[in-house]
């Protein structure tokens, strides 16, 4: 599958310039200073003025920042299905949230092939697989990913997991909403392979080893030019580091590792779509060549790995 992508909107915390955000870390770095109600300063990227009532209310207000609130704004996208990439949600939570979305944005659900992917950051790879499997009448989809770790601040603070003036290591919670139009094409980003797995947290290292083995066992295996790997949680990083040797035949001293959370903060499930668009943009700008790997490890259960290359117009 070969695709072209058009970034409609990327919003991370207070930052809303998509060109600034998609060019990180080469554009001006973001300001991670965030003040808690108790006056403490921590490393975080949160928008000001959004709901502090509950997660769903805050996510809905994040959606208000996209050009989708009325039928006139939605007109350019109504011919495509919408793939909603959401945090890991329990069934009751998902039903409630979807009902709120339907009530707020009925025009966004007119296309019968619209789908929800409540799988965390790995949901973007399921969405790409769905696009690949759609019928010939569907030539693309609008991808929307949103997440906020605002309501995890208290727990992370209680567990001393936040970066602050007193602690120089830990988590950097953030929130983001991303919208992109992704279309099938004859040139552009080629999705060479997608592998997906599910597992419990204690099986994560072994499952990542399995995914890395899928890469090394490919008949057409090449040396990977860049690896997009998770960096938002120490335990997840430890898990892929413990599996890293299974990529030994597919990497060399020139293979680069990119961990986008170091320049965007932890944007939860939106990280998968961000990484995908970041890879696309860097190929498009001729900043990278060769084959890229993207590993996504969601908050719960879901993992995915994709490999990409770039096809120039003949």
Report on the structure:
The structure is a single chain. This protein has 314 residues and is α/β, with parallel strands linked by helices. Helices cover 29% and strands 25% of the residues. The chain is built from 10 helices and 12 strands. The chain has helices spanning 18-22, 55-63, 71-74, 91-104, 123-133, 153-158, 204-216, 234-243, 261-264, 270-284; strands at 2-12, 33-35, 41-43, 82-85, 115-117, 140-148, 175-184, 188-198, 224-228, 256-258, 291-297, 302-311. The strands form 2 sheets. Strands 5-4-6-7-1-8-12-11-9-10 form a 10-stranded mixed sheet, with helices on both faces. Strands 2-3 form a two-stranded antiparallel sheet. α7 crosses α8 (234-243). The longest helix is centred in the last third of the chain and has 15 residues, at 270-284. The radius of gyration is 19 Å and the shape is globular. The chain starts with a strand and ends with a strand. The model has no long low-confidence stretch (mean pLDDT 92).
Percentage of residues in DSSP E strands: 25-35%
Which strand order does the major sheet show? 5-4-6-7-1-8-12-11-9-10
The helix tally amounts to: 10
Largest sheet report: 10 strands, mixed
Order of helices and strands: EHEEHHEHEHEHEEHEHEHHEE
What number is the mean pLDDT?
92
Instruction: Report the radius of gyration as a whole number of Å.
Output: 19 Å
Organism: Shewanella ulleungensis
Protein name: DUF2877 domain-containing protein
């Amino acid at each position: 599958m070969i695709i072209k992508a058009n970034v409609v909107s990327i919003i991370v915390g207070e930052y809303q310039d998509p060109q600034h955000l998609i060019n990180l870390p080469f554009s001006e770095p973001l300001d991670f200073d965030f003040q808690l109600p108790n006056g403490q300063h921590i490393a975080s990227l949160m928008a000001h003025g959004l709901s502090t009532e509950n997660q769903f209310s805050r996510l809905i207000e994040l959606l208000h920042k996209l050009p989708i609130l009325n039928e006139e704004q939605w007109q350019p996208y109504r011919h495509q299905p919408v793939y909603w990439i959401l945090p890991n949600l329990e069934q009751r939570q998902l039903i409630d949230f979807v009902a709120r979305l339907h009530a707020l944005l009925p025009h966004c659900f007119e296309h019968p092939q619209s789908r929800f992917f409540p799988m965390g950051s790995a949901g973007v790879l399921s969405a790409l697989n769905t696009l690949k499997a759609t019928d010939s009448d569907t030539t693309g989809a609008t991808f929307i990913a949103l997440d906020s770790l605002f309501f995890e601040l208290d727990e992370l603070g209680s567990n001393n997991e936040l970066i602050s003036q007193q602690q120089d290591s830990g988590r950097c919670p953030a929130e983001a909403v991303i919208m992109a139009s992704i279309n099938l094409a004859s040139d552009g980003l080629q999705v060479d392979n997608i592998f997906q797995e599910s597992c419990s947290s204690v099986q994560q290292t072994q499952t990542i080893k399995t995914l890395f083995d899928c890469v090394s066992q490919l008949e057409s295996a090449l040396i990977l030019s860049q690896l997009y790997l998770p960096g938002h949680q120490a335990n997840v990083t430890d898990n892929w580091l413990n599996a890293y040797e299974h990529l030994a035949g597919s990497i060399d001293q020139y293979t680069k590792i990119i961990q986008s959370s170091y320049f965007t903060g932890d944007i939860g499930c939106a990280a998968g779509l961000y990484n995908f668009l970041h890879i696309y943009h860097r190929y498009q700008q001729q900043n990278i060549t060769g084959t890229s790997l993207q590993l996504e490890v969601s908050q719960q259960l879901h993992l995915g790995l994709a490999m990409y290359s770039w096809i120039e117009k003949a």
